[in-house]
Amino acid sequence: MNDSFSQLVNSAASILVVLPNKPSFDTTAAGLSLYLSLREIKETMIYCASQMTVGVNRLIGVNKISGEIGNKNLTIKFKGYEASNIEKVSYDIEDGEFKLTIVPKTGFVSPQKDQMELSFSGVSSDLVILVGGLDESDFPILSREELAGAKVAHVGARTLNLTRDVMSFAAQGSGVSEVATNLIKENNLSLDADVATNLVMGIEEGSSNFASGEVTPDTFETFVFLLRNGGQRPPRVKLSPMNFPPGAIPIQPFSSPKPVRQAASSQPEPIAEEIEAKEELVENPPNDWLQPKVFKGTSIS
Description:
This protein is an alpha/beta fold. The protein has helices spanning 2-11, 25-38, 176-186, 193-206, 217-228, 270-283; strands at 14-18, 43-47, 73-78, 86-94, 97-104, 116-121, 127-131, 151-155, 167-168.
């Protein structure tokens, strides 16, 4: 499998990495990592039909994900410029460089720089790598005519259901990022700190912080491998009252309730009655207590 993936990459002139519609954080991390790794050796683009959500903004290179596809034909358009003002258009090759010249008619000015718009159309990629997804509905781009002759490969944690021929590199794992890590590692593709950091975050999200039932000892070994290759774990945000909207939670700590004094019982307790009786006896003793005492002895016969 690994040799086949290497052969696909080495034989390709241009590679297109495609994310499914509404990709998860794990899938986005895996796709970005493959893109960053492959672009070191091949012309590579990454595409997703869905708009990226705020949740994936912490991934490195997320701004490289394009919602428009096309890298084959260059179109130059002059916005707001009347085409009838142009006399002729010519081109030259000077020192191996292409030069386009636009000559306006007499009495008219040439198009200005701020009127020029550049755009691309058509797809020249001869290798398409699908990342994640479940079936063909996740990758509507496959129906485009420009990709009819391209080779298609798939990287994911489960097999993709396609009617089109696809070379599958799906494997068991806690998520797509774990599978992508092993693919990069085993094919000796570029793995710098940015790629490793994306995959670290992807594995944590894909495995539900290692609580998923798909986690195996291999998952932890893969995670350690990424950390040793420069992967960084983002700092955890410590929750405080400032993380919530005003009024959502009380800022002042709850005060302990004051102890409630119980009303004195109208009936004195038995012990209290006994103490009061003894005190009264001491203060007002009987008269015979104060008289001298005469003791009489018994005779011994």
